[in-house]
Design goal:
three-stranded antiparallel β-sheet; globular; 6 helices; D-amino Acid Aminotransferase, Chain A, domain 1; alpha+beta
Length: 206
C-alpha cells in the first residue's frame, strides 16, 4: 500500500427489502446512501489527491474539498461520497440537504472550476470510513474501531461532514430510517456490520 495509489473499493449489493438487508448481518449499522460519486481521498502533509471509483484522479474538479482535506492532522486515506450539497446558514453542514445528481454533474470532468460554479454547484465529501491513518493500514480493524478513529480525524471542516451510522434493531426501526432518507433527497440506506473488516475490491481488469 502506498499513499496516492488508490486501493480497491468495497462495493455494496442491493437488497429488495429491509428483511433481506438485515438477514446478512448479526449487528447491522445503517447509514444514509447519497446520490453522488464514490471517492477515495489520500492526504499527506497538506497534499491531497481524490480518486474516483475507477481510480481516476478527480482532485481538480473539487478544489474546495482538497483544501478542506489538507487540514487533516495525519497522513490518511478516507473512503466516502462526493455529493451536491446545499449548506445551511448558521448550522452544522450535516443539517444541509442533498441536491440532485444533475447538479453534481456540472462539476465532473472539469480541469478548472470557477468560484461561481463552486457557489452554484456546491459539494460536500461525506467520509464514511478510514482505510489508513498515521502510518497504519487499518482496513483489518472492526468497523466500530475505524468509526472511532474517523471521529478523531474529522474536526468538522465545512466541506467534510461526517457520515454517521446508527444501530438498526430490526425492520421496525429500519423502515422509518428509509422513509427519512427518501424525504431528505437521499438515495436510500446501506448496511454494514460493526465487526466486519473491509474487503478490498478487485484490481483493475479483474
Amino acid at each position: 500500500m502506498r499513499l496516492f495509489h488508490p486501493l480497491g473499493f468495497m462495493l455494496a449489493s442491493p437488497a429488495e427489502s429491509a428483511e433481506e438487508a438485515l438477514s446478512y448481518f448479526s449487528n447491522a449499522q445503517v447509514e444514509d446512501k447519497y446520490d453522488g460519486i464514490r471517492a477515495q481521498a489520500h492526504c499527506s502533509a497538506g497534499e491531497v489527491k481524490i480518486f474516483s471509483r475507477t481510480r481516476d484522479e478527480i482532485t481538480e474538479s473539487f478544489p474546495e474539498l482538497a483544501d478542506a482535506l489538507s487540514a487533516l492532522p495525519h497522513d490518511v486515506i478516507l473512503d466516502g461520497e462526493i455529493v451536491a450539497w446545499n449548506y445551511p446558514a448558521n448550522a452544522p453542514p450535516e443539517q444541509g440537504r442533498a441536491q440532485p445528481f444533475s447538479t453534481l454533474q456540472q462539476r465532473l470532468g472539469r480541469k478548472k472550476v470557477s468560484d461561481e460554479l463552486i457557489r452554484r454547484a456546491s459539494v460536500a465529501y461525506f467520509a464514511f470510513d478510514v482505510l489508513y491513518a498515521a502510518g497504519d493500514l487499518v482496513i483489518d480493524r472492526p468497523l466500530r474501531e475505524r468509526a472511532a478513529l474517523l471521529d478523531q480525524l474529522l474536526a468538522a471542516p465545512r466541506n467534510l461532514p461526517r457520515s454517521r451510522g446508527r444501530a438498526s434493531q430490526g425492520e421496525l426501526l429500519f423502515e422509518p430510517d428509509h422513509q427519512l432518507a427518501a424525504s431528505s433527497n437521499r438515495e436510500g440506506l446501506f448496511c454494514r456490520t460493526t465487526g466486519r473488516v473491509v474487503c478490498r475490491g478487485p484490481s483493475p481488469g479483474q
